[in-house]
Structure formats: C-alpha cells, structure tokens
Design a protein that fits this description.
The complex is a heterodimer of chains A (246) and B (832).
Chain A: E1 14-26, E2 29-42, E3 46-50, H1 57-64, E4 72-79, E5 86-89, E6 97-100, H2 112-122, H3 128-138, H4 154-166, E7 172-176, H5 184-200, E8 204-208, H6 212-217, E9 220-225, E10 228-233
Parallel strand pairs in A: 3-8, 3-9, 6-7, 7-8
Antiparallel strand pairs in A: 1-2, 1-4, 4-5, 9-10
Helix pairs in contact in A: 2-3, 2-4, 3-4, 4-5
Chain B: H1 2-22, H2 26-63, E1 68-72, H3 78-87, E2 90-103, E3 106-115, E4 125-128, E5 136-138, E6 146-150, H4 151-156, E7 164-167, E8 170-180, E9 193-198, H5 199-205, E10 213-219, H6 225-235, E11 240-243, H7 249-296, H8 301-317, H9 320-338, H10 351-377, H11 382-385, H12 391-412, H13 416-447, H14 454-464, H15 466-505, E12 508-514, H16 515-527, E13 531-546, E14 549-550, H17 551-554, H18 560-565, E15 569-574, E16 581-586, E17 598-602, H19 603-609, E18 616-621, E19 624-636, E20 647-650, E21 662-668, H20 676-683, E22 688-691, H21 692-731, H22 733-745, H23 750-788, H24 796-817, H25 819-822, H26 826-831
Parallel strand pairs in B: 3-9, 6-8, 15-20, 17-19
Antiparallel strand pairs in B: 1-10, 1-11, 2-3, 2-10, 4-5, 4-8, 6-9, 7-8, 12-21, 12-22, 13-14, 13-15, 13-18, 13-21, 16-19, 17-20, 18-19
The chains are: A alpha/beta (246), B alpha+beta (832).
C-alpha cells in the first residue's frame, strides 16, 4: 500500500469547522447538542469520535459532511495545498464523500459486485465492474463477488460496504459504528481493512464508534460529551476543548 | 376448550389493536379503497339486476294479456284452430305487420295490429279521444273501418279524431287514441309507433300472409299448460309459446345484458387482483415479521395467522356500512336510469341477495389475500434474522390466482367467444409486457453500458430488480390496456360503424323485400338513377333441433346466438363463397353437388352454441321440417358490403324447399331523391326499409346508452388504475427510500434521485405503453370484427394521443406518489 500524504506538508484537502453549535427545538424547549466546537479533518488521516449516546456524534458527522446545517458557526471545505487554496462551503463537499453504516445498507437484490459497482455506474464509469472487482479483491472478497447480501455474513457485508464506499475514491469517508454489528474477531478484521483501505486511497476516515479497540486504531480520537469535544489521542491532545488544524 | 376461546379472544383483541394502529397506513387505505369500489359496484349491480328480474316476472303475470300466447308466421289451419279451441277456455286471434304508413307528405314505419272482435282477452284496453283527455277502458278493439293510433303517431302526423287515412288503398277513420294494450309484453323491444285495426280489415288490405305475425291469446287453466306445450311441439314446432309460468321474453335479453356487465366486472376484478397483489407484498413482509416476533416470544404459529385473519375481517366488516350505503345510492340511480326501459320499476333492497353477494366477494378478496396467510405458514423465527424472500413461490401463487380468476371469468360469462377473446388479449398483453420488460431492460443495459449519464444506471438498476419491476410494469401496463380498450371502444363504436355503413352500404337498407317488390324496386331505382349496392336473397327458417335434441335441451345457457335462434332466422343460398365471407373450416359445396342438405354456419355462432362440423340441424321452413348437416364454417370479411348471413345452404336446396323468397338490399339515395321514397311506400307499405337517418338515430340512442355505461365503467377503471399505481409504488416505497438514501451516501443530491426517478417512470411507462397498445390492437382485431362484424380501423393518432395522455398521467402520478421515497436522508440510514 502506498501513501501520498506527507506529514508536515499540507497538500491534501481538509474540512474546517469553526465555532459550530447545534441545537433543536423539542416541545417548545431548546435542546443544545454541542456548542462552539472547532475541528479540522484532513484528507488521508483517521479520526474516531467517541462519547455517550445522545451526545450528538451522528449530528456532528452530518455537519462535517455538509448534509446538515449548523445552528451557528461556520464550516468550510478547503481544497488544494497551502499555496493554492480554494475555500468553499461544506455543501460542495458532497461529490467527495462516502458513507459506511452500522447496518451495512447493501441493496438486497444486487450481488456484492453490483453493489460495489453502483456508485461508479451512477457516475457513468465504463470500467465500473472491473474497478469493483479490484476493490472487492482488496477487501478479500474475490470469491464472493456474485453472492447476494443475504448469502454473506455480517463481516462480509461490511467489507462489501467498505469497498462500495471507497471504490469511487472519495476524499472523506464517514463511518457510523462500522463494527457495531459485528463480533470481536470480525470487528478487528473490519477495523484493519477499513483503516488500511482509507490510507491506501488517501481518504480521511471519520468514525463514530463506541468501540475503544476501533478508536485506538485511529490517528486522532475525540470524546464528545456535554462538556464539548475533547481530544484524547493525537497531536496537541492537551488542547481542550478546542482542536485547531495542525 | 376454555383456553381455546380465551386465546381467540386475546387474539381478537390483539387484532383489533393492530387494525387500529395500521388504519392510517397507506397500504391499508389502498386496500380499503379497492375493496370498497368492488363491493359498491357488485352490490349495486346485483341488486339492480335482481330488481329487474323480479320486475320481469311480475310483468309477465300482468302484461301477457292472456294465460298463454302462441305466435308464428303462418295462420292456424282450421284444423289447428279447432283443435286448440277445444283445449282452451277462450281464444282470441291477433295479427301484426310492420308497414310504412304515409299520410299527406309524411311517412313513418309503424307496427299495425289487427284484433278480433273478442279482444281483449284479459287486462285493460285503454283509449282516449285527445292527448290531454281522460283515459277510458274499451271493452273491445276497433270496429271494421276504424283505426286507432298511439299518441306518438297521432302527434307526429297532426291527426284529428274523425280524420280519414289510407293504407293500401283502403280508407280508415281515426276514432280513438290508443293508450294501453294489455298484451304488449311480447313486443317489449319494439319501439315502432303503433296503430290498431279490426282483423276483418286486415284481410281486405291483402298483405302477403308470410309478412304477418300471427298471435293467438289463450285463456286456460294452468294445469293445461303441459298438454298445450306437448300439442305445440307436435303440431307447431316452429311456433313460440309463452305462458305465465314461463320466462319473460325480455328475460333472455336482460340476462345477456347482465352477463356483459358481468364480463366488465370481471375486468374490474382483474384490476383489483393486481392492486391487492401489490398491496399484499407489503402486508406479507409485515405480517411475517409480526408472526416471527410472536413465535420468538413463545406463541404458536397459528397466533400470527389468526391475528392476521381477524384483522382482515375487521377491515372488511368495518367497510360494510359505508359500502352498503353507497351501493344503495348507486342502486337507486341505476333503477332511476332503467325506468326508461322498464316502466314502474321500483327501488327495493334484497337482503338475502346482498348477503350472498357479500359472501361471494369476500371469498374472492380472501382468495386474493391468501398468499399473505400462506406465507405465514412458512414463517419462522429465523425470518427475523434472514429477510430473504421466496420469489418463486410468490410467482406460483400469482399464477394460481390468475388461473382461478380465469376459471371464474369463463364460468361467469355466457358469451364464451367474447370472454375468450378478452382473456386471450389480456394474457397476450401480460406475456408481451413480461417479454418487453426483459428485452428492453436487458438490451437497454447492454447497449448503454458504455455510455455515461443516468440512463445506463437506471437500466442497470431496473434490470437488477427485474422481478419487482416487471410486476410494477405489468400492473401499469394492464391498467393502461384495459383503460385504453374501454375508451377506444367508446370512441370507435360510433365512428367506425357509421362511417363504414355510409362507405359501403349506401344510405338506405332494405331488410325485407318480396320478389315483386324487388323487381319494382330495381325498375324504380334505374328510372330514378339510384344505385343498388347489394342484393341478396333469403328465406325464413326456424331452427328447432340440433342432433335431434330441442334447442332448450341442447343448450340451456343464454347467448346472443341462442336468443336469435329462438326466432326465425334468414337462410341464404349460393353456390360460391360470398365475397364478403371467409371460409374458416370444412369445405364449401361444389356447384354441381347433389347433396343439398348441407350448410355453412358462421364461426361465432358455432362457438357460441357449442356446435361443430357434422352436427345435424333441423329447421322448419314454411311449415315443413328439413335436416341439414354442418359442412363448413365462415366468417365476415370486411370490404365487400356488410350483408352477410349466419346460415347458408347450396342453391340446389331451392329445388327441394317450397318457401317464399325475400331479398335484402342496400341503396344510395341522395337527399334530393328522398321524396321519391314516399311514392315507393304508398305502393308497397310492407317494404321494410330503414333509412340512414333512422339507422343513425337508433344507433345514436344505443350509443348514448353505451356511452353512459362505458363512461361510468371507465371512471371506475381509472380509479382502480390509480390505486394499482399507488399500490405498486407503496409496495416498494421502503426499498426506494433506502435506495435513494444510499445513492445520496455516494455523494449525490436529491435532484439526481428525482432525475433517476423520472427516467425510471419513463421507461416503465414506455414498456407498459408498448404492451397496452399491442394488447388494445389485438383486442380490437379480435373483438371488433367478431362481435360487431365490422373491420377494425383503429385511429392511430387518437390511440397514440390517448395513450400519451394516459402515460403522462401515469408518470406524473408515479413521480408525485414517489415523492415520499425522495424525501430520504442519510441520517435515516444511520438511525436504522
């Protein structure tokens, strides 16, 4: 596996959240999930966000991916290197993102191969099937390409989901509890595959997880709670509760 | 026992709870709509039909004007008259003839009735002296030299009491206005204007005997009817005997109407079956899941099934009050509409019948829903872990449902040929749509493989979901086919028929002319430069036996053919196959054939009556029996005139049959030549002619009625088609929503999903349209020619534009109804 990232020299794109707050109204009462968060996600690196249920981890994921708008604060997507930066709103991030879910969410009527080929087909890629085959080989499913999801185990289904999320080479992968539905052994395997594949593709991996084992494999680990976002692993982990771009 | 009833009570409570919870779910709403439409339609239809049947029975009792009537083409011989007089208490002779009555410069085709001095036998003969005057009862008919006219004739000729009119050079004085004849029943269909004279005058008019219909009214004891029937069978086999204990002459007509509507309702059942099948798909998964959960909590397999059945019963039972009320209202409207044809028909609710109908329809609904309950038998806790669907068994269940429906259709309809044609057209459409779906999606996927854009993706996805997509396309296609065919029928019935008549047959049809009349007509035509388009000879023949069995014994199912054969038919003769006929089976006779006792029968009649080649038919012609063997079958071939005959025999037969010959002919008479017709009818009042104006007038009346019926029927079909589309969308809504969310997780936005959705509906609509248009064309080719003896000349511009409108509605409805599945988000995928 080769990597195109060069530590200390920012060539990759990144997402920057500044003073982000998220709240919603419930029965005429304002419920605040989090306030004044700052976070930078860089392409090619891995991030884990941990925390108790209801702390707003999934909401943070939605904000980072530009699919939802924050109540206040600003999120930007920066493409290019330091010399030639192009800054835009997070809504422009959409073509560059991929998702992995706890429930895999494969289309049941499609084979593993067709599930993986799906995003490429949508983009009109004429080599979709071949690229999907290569991707399935990478996740170790070369022998199961013509199987339907219901003929695969949970671990195998998640491998297909990983292949599907990475096959169109997005810059950012958002994973919601990617190992939450798997046994320990499968979870370990999936974690390795996920991290390696993202590294290999130079994609950022942002995981929301309750699994300490999985979180430990990430380069940056954050803990989200009502006290804010606390970095517990990675550079400058003493900076609390704010994390700035390194 | 106690525990069983307790468990049933608990299950019922549970079912009630679930029923209430699911009440507002879209699939439950669709199910309720489908069931309600069919319930209302069938209840109103059966109630109205039964009311008419009851009316006919009562009508028979009150309007026969006698205990029994015998009618035939010839007068009784004195021997027959004496025989019959000896058997019955009283006998009254009447005669009836259709003539063209002309007075001053006007003319009118009328029914002239001559009655004996002892008329009426039973019931009231009502007359008046002015239109607004009091109606009084007359104890006898007109005296010799007198004539009575009915109100319409009176009004149309501007007559006054005391006026003198002339028929066949005989003068009559108009003395009374005829208001009601007690023996009109046998002329129930006849809408011609009427006049009545004394029977003594009929002889003076000197009409040919064979143009007169002789009817004898009999007063007798009901116990004498069997012996009378026996006497009639023996001495007057071709005569028609009607008695108070028998069937109303309109009963057969009404039964056929009912059967045709029955066929229409079968189409609705097919639509409902498609809709329920789509809805059941969603129910099945839900019920299976519930059943598996119950089992995982220690309940038996039967719990899930019982709860599902009780829940289904609740949904049907609670629908009944609304359906019954709506059906009662529709029944009232139908009765109101039918009073034009059946005067004094009253609205009445028949409770036992409604119960029977409800049981029947509920059984059909249960049959449609059976796959859901069957799937619960195969439900297991394992299903909770594995959501795999058994599509093969689903397909099997669908085929069984279709097979049962086809059997019901065939058992229900009397016109086997028409039913078979419609079912064939439907089956071909189904197969075609399936084939087209597979072909278009496979080829589409292959051919667009190397293209970029959304189209290849849509083809790819649709091909991958071939089974579920085919079901959706099938539903839409069949709905479009049934709708298009119904609309086309409505549109073309008038247009094709009238234009064809004008084009090939001239504007005047002579339906019955004697040889004298025909030769005069030919001279008259050539003198006045009028062209005779067609001219074909025939004689009257009454079919009495098939393979030595009476008609009633041979075939007791009512049909168009049987109804016609219960009267005299026109038998044509020739040596060569007519140019407007096509030989379908057997061989046509040679010119020099010595075997004159062979006939060719029209194919539809063969099928309708269940006849085959080499069957022996016995006809009574001019009072004598003749046996014929069927050696060929033919059908109408358009393009060479529309005068065709059901039964044809070799010309050689003429040497053996002594009977009067008549002719049918068609003429082209210009508007300027119209006044010449009055002269013709003065000369020959009995010459039966129908002008184009009369034909179109009659036709317009029929068309107006058909239009009303078909419009109502189309409205129901449109409603059901809408439900089918909504059901087919609802069935896959969850999958679609998930698909859209997944697509968005690949970095696409909602606009892309909408575009994909529109393209998918366009492809669905195009395949469905292909099937619908071919199905409609096929149904047109099969049914138009066979049932209306007319060439099918589809107006493709109209057809395609109507189809385009239907499909635009389908796509709009499809996209609109799919908006919920577009309203998906990645967050939903995370939340699962």
């Amino acid at each position: 596996m080769s990597s195109t990232t060069h530590p200390g020299n920012i060539q990759a794109s990144y997402i920057q959240l500044s003073n982000i707050s998220q709240s919603f109204a419930l029965n005429n009462t304002k419920v605040t999930l989090f306030e004044q968060l700052n976070l930078t996600i860089k392409q090619g690196q891995s991030y884990a966000i941990m925390g108790p249920s209801g702390a707003g981890k999934s909401s943070l994921l939605m904000l980072m991916s530009g699919l939802e708008q924050p109540s206040s604060g600003r999120g930007v997507y920066v493409k290019g290197d330091l010399k030639n930066k192009h800054e835009s709103s997070l809504e422009t991030l959409r073509p560059d993102i991929g998702f992995i879910f706890q429930q895999f969410h494969l289309l049941p009527e499609l084979t593993a191969l067709n599930n993986v080929a799906l995003p490429l087909k949508l983009r009109g890629d004429k080599k979709a099937i071949n690229k999907a085959k290569v991707m399935l080989e990478k996740v170790g499913l070369q022998d199961r390409i013509n199987h339907n999801p219901n003929e695969l185990s949970g671990g195998e289904q998640q491998r297909v989901a990983i292949a599907r999320a990475l096959v169109f080479e997005p810059r950012f992968i958002f994973a919601d509890e990617p190992t939450g539905n798997l046994d320990e052994k499968s979870a370990r395997e999936i974690a390795n595959i996920l991290l390696n594949c993202c590294k290999d593709s130079n994609a950022a991996l942002i995981m929301v997880t309750h699994s300490q084992v999985l979180a430990n494999k990430a380069e940056h680990v954050y803990h989200l709670s009502h006290n804010g976002l606390i970095k517990v692993k990675g550079n400058n982990c003493d900076v609390l509760p704010v994390e700035l771009a390194c | 026992m106690l525990s069983m009833s307790t468990s049933l009570l608990e299950n019922t409570k549970l079912a009630w709870q679930f029923y209430r919870q699911e009440y507002h779910l879209p699939q439950q709403k669709l199910l309720r709509w489908t069931q309600a439409i069919l319930l209302i339609f069938m209840l109103a239809l059966t109630q109205s039909s039964f009311s008419v049947q009851q009316y006919l029975t009562q009508n028979l009792q009150g309007l026969l004007g006698a205990d029994a009537q015998i009618s035939q083409r010839q007068p009784f011989t004195s021997q027959q008259f004496n025989d019959l007089s000896a058997q019955v208490e009283q006998l009254v002779a009447t005669q009836q003839i259709k003539i063209n009555f002309s007075h001053q410069d006007s003319w009118q085709y009328i029914s002239l009735k001559a009655v004996a001095d002892n008329y009426p036998l039973q019931g009231e003969l009502l007359t008046a002296t002015s239109l607004a005057g009091n109606t009084e009862q007359s104890l006898s008919g007109p005296k010799q030299g007198e004539i009575w006219f009915d109100s319409r004739l009176f009004a149309s000729f501007n007559l006054k009491i005391g006026d003198t009119v002339e028929i066949s050079k005989q003068e009559f004085t108009f003395t009374k206005l005829l208001k009601h004849e007690p023996d009109r029943l046998m002329e129930g269909h006849n809408v011609a204007m009427r006049a009545m004279i004394n029977i003594g005058d009929m002889e003076k008019l000197n009409f040919s005997e064979n143009l007169i219909n002789y009817r004898y009214l009999l007063a007798l004891d009901a116990r004498q009817i069997p012996s009378l029937q026996e006497w009639q069978q023996q001495h007057l086999p071709a005569a028609q005997l009607v008695h108070k204990q028998g069937n109303h002459p309109l009963a057969l007509f009404w039964q056929r109407t009912e059967n045709f509507i029955g066929l229409a309702s079968i189409i609705l059942f097919f639509m409902a079956a498609i809709a329920i099948e789509q809805i059941a798909l969603k129910h099945q998964n839900k019920e299976q899941y519930f059943s598996a959960v119950c089992m995982s909590l220690g309940a038996s397999k039967s719990t899930g099934i019982v709860v599902s059945i009780v829940k289904w019963c609740f949904s049907l039972l609670l629908l009944l009050p609304v359906a019954l009320l709506a059906a009662a209202a529709c029944h009232w409207l139908m009765i109101h509409y039918l009073t034009d044809s059946f005067p004094n028909l009253q609205w009445q609710w028949h409770y036992a019948l409604s119960l029977k109908t409800l049981v029947f329809i509920s059984s059909i609904f249960a049959l449609f829903y059976l796959p859901v309950w069957y799937s619960l038998l195969n439900s297991s806790v394992g299903k909770l872990f594995n959501q795999a669907k058994n599509t093969a068994s689903n397909l099997g269940q669908k085929l069984v449902t279709v097979a049962v429906l086809v059997i019901v259709v065939l058992a229900y309809s009397d016109n086997a040929l028409l039913t078979m044609m419609l079912v064939t057209a439907m089956m071909v459409t189904i197969l075609l749509i399936l084939l087209l779906s597979w072909l278009v999606l496979t080829l589409g996927e292959k051919l667009t493989k190397n293209l970029s854009g959304l189209l290849p993706f849509v083809f790819f996805m649709m091909k991958q979901r071939l089974v579920s997509k085919s079901t959706q396309i099938l539903g839409v296609g069949l709905s479009a086919f049934l709708l298009l065919f119904t609309l086309m029928l409505m549109h073309d019935l008038g247009k094709t028929m009238s234009s064809y008549q004008r084009q090939h047959d001239g504007n005047l049809m002579v339906s019955k002319a004697t040889n004298d009349q025909l030769s005069y007509l030919k001279n008259w035509a050539s003198e006045n430069n009028i062209s005779i388009r067609q001219n074909k000879s025939y004689m009257h023949a009454k079919l009495i036996e098939i393979n030595k069995q009476s008609l009633a014994e041979f075939n007791d199912k009512p049909s168009e053919s049987l109804a016609t054969f219960s009267r005299e038919i026109r038998m044509h003769w020739n040596n060569q196959l007519p140019s407007n006929n096509r030989l379908l089976s057997g061989t046509w006779w040679q010119v020099d054939s010595e075997n004159w006792q062979q006939i060719s029968v029209e194919q539809e009649v063969l099928t309708d009556m269940g006849l085959s080649l080499s069957d022996e038919l016995t006809f009574v012609i001019a009072g004598r029996r003749y046996d014929f063997t069927i050696t060929a079958s033919h059908e109408f071939k358009p393009g060479n005139g529309s005068i065709t005959f059901w039964v044809q025999m070799p010309t050689a037969a003429l040497a053996h049959i002594q009977a009067n010959h008549y002719s049918m002919a068609s003429l082209e008479v210009s508007e300027q030549q119209q006044p010449l017709l009055a002269e013709l009818w003065q000369k020959f009042p009995t010459l039966r002619m129908v002008s184009l104006q009369q034909m179109t007038e009659r036709f317009d009346n029929i068309l107006a009625m058909i239009t009303k019926v078909i419009s109502g029927f189309s409205a129901i079909i449109i409603l059901l088609a809408g439900i089918v589309i909504l059901a087919s969308i609802n069935a896959v809504e969850a999958n679609e929503q998930k698909k859209n969310s997944i697509i968005m997780s690949f970095g696409f936005n909602r606009a892309t999903c909408l575009k994909l959705n529109i393209i998918e509906w366009l492809i669905t609509a195009m395949i469905a349209a292909g099937g619908a248009i071919v199905g409609t064309y096929l149904a047109g080719v099969l049914i138009y020619q066979s049932q209306f003896s007319l060439p099918y000349q589809p107006d493709f511009i109209w057809l395609v534009s109507t189809l385009f409108i239907i499909l635009a509605c389908v796509i709009s409805l499809g996209v609109y109804a799919s908006r919920k599945s577009l309203n998906s988000s990645i967050r939903q995928l995370m939340a699962e």
